[in-house]
Description:
Elements: E1 2-6, H1 12-24, E2 29-33, E3 45-47, E4 53-54, E5 58-59, H2 70-79, H3 87-98, H4 100-107, H5 116-127, E6 130-131, H6 136-164, E7 166-170, E8 173-177, H7 185-191, E9 195-201, E10 209-213, H8 222-228, E11 233-236, E12 242-245, H9 249-261
Parallel strand pairs: 1-2, 1-3, 3-5, 8-9
Antiparallel strand pairs: 2-6, 4-5, 7-8, 9-10, 10-12, 11-12
Helix pairs in contact: 1-2, 1-6, 3-4
Amino acid sequence: MKIITHSGVGHADDFLAVSLLLHMFPEATVERVSELPNKIDEDAFVVDIGGKYEPPRFLDHHQNSDIPSSFILVLKEVFGISNDFGKDLAFYDLKDRYGVTRACQVLEVKNDILSPIESAIISVWSSISALKPGDPLHVVMQKIGENIVKAIKAREETKLNLMKSEKISIKEGVIIFYPESNPNINLIKEFVPKVIGIVKPNSRVPTQTDIVSVDNNALFRPESIVQRAELNAVFIHKTGFMAVVDKPLSQVKKNIVKALSS
Length: 262
């Protein structure tokens, strides 16, 4: 099958749209054209060119600024993902449609600074006219598409785990008793801005529990929590940001809640 997009200077929108499609269809070839051919294969995808939005095959947005960017259309129409893409993808969407100033204003972020990695990749993308399976950029774009989908799914998984998590609020902030051993700390900080501590199962020994100070916060010191909750630490990180205790999460939670309530 074939993916068709515009030639010339590339942007994050068309690059991400094609990357996502290559993740879903790794056998696809890519053509960057100045004008669409008169005949388009029935199984081809046309993204960010053509002047029409007729899902699932024709995914352009330039005819109407209210239509999301092409990579968002790919997420919606091909992957069935239609909400909560995260601020980073929302930024690229708004930037492509309205410009960087408007995107920064809407999302309340500082002015865009293009990273050297992004600049280099987009430069290479802009220089090619076609890609086939096995080409280095083809492989890289597949992986980028894969990681975008994983990141979006991680947001949903984190939300679900936070719904299952017990939380206690103290004057210094929020402590979360998280059910999974490998939480995405940055996402938890985004969803619970006042979090200062996370208590979770140890990733190596499930019967042990990690007590973690988020960003090594001075308001939540694991070693002090261990003492106050009368727990036994089997490991304390030299920076003090984490302690591991020899009891399961359920028991550690009881001890900590009791200690902080007294």
